Amino acid sequence: MQSLFVSPPHIESPRWQQAFPSARLLSDESELPADVRGLLIWVMLGDVYSLAHIARWVAAGARVVGLTQAEDPSQAKQVLEAGASGYLHYLAVVPVLQQVSQVVEVGGLWLGVDLMRQLVFATANIIQSAPEKIHLDMLSTREQDVAKAVAAGKSNKEVARELDITERTVKAHLSAVFEKLNVRDRLHLVLVLSGRQ
Q1: What is the pLDDT of residues 150-185, one digit of tens each?
Q2: HSE of 21 in the Cβ direction (CA atoms, 13 Å)?
């Protein structure tokens, strides 16, 4: 998937070209090709028009990642509602940029670790307030323990420590949970366990 970065010339990162040597850097959205299908557009957020651009590009068949100078949950929400598949700081390191690209290309959603953790914590209380909606009978006891801990916002390392197992075992149980419950990621797990999806 070809990457295009749309950003004012005074806000650029050399990491973009390091991550994607064939990427094009555009200083204005008018420089985009007429057909954006199949493109991955990384857009520097900065004005109210960015959201309209994102919605238009997504409708035309592009994947879009919003880049920001300061991560903000309310801005992330607006960007994702406009149809973007990702949101992160514009100075993200090369391996993160490449990982974002891989996730977005396969239809995934990317949020930074801090924002994802905030979302998981914000929705974890839904599980506690609505336990009758949780259907974990298809999981083993240990998988249930891992699923509940992860849905409560704990990292693999924290879950391993709490359950006295290795991180590798946590990952194995988590993979089984994702497969059995047909969920894509941690946030989706929270939504499924809360009965919201």
Answers
A1: 888 788 888 999 999 999 999 999 999 988 888 878
A2: 0
> Using alpha carbons only, what angle is made at residue 194 by residues 141 and 76, rounded to the nearest 5 degrees?
120
Q: Which amino acid is at 117?
A: R
- Cα–Cα distances (Å) from 117 to 33, 73, 142, 187, in that order, read 36, 11, 23, 9
Listing DSSP states for 33-48 in one string gives: -S--TT-EEEEE--ST
Residue 9 has a pLDDT of 85
Q: What pLDDT digit, counting tens, does each position of 95-128 carry?
A: 999 999 998 998 888 887 777 766 666 655 554 5
Q: Provide CB contacts within 8 A for 18, sequence distance 6+.
A: 94
Residues 148 and 180: their CA atoms lie apart, in Å, by 14
DSSP E strands in the chain: the ranges are 3-6, 24-26, 40-44, 63-68, 86-89, 110-111
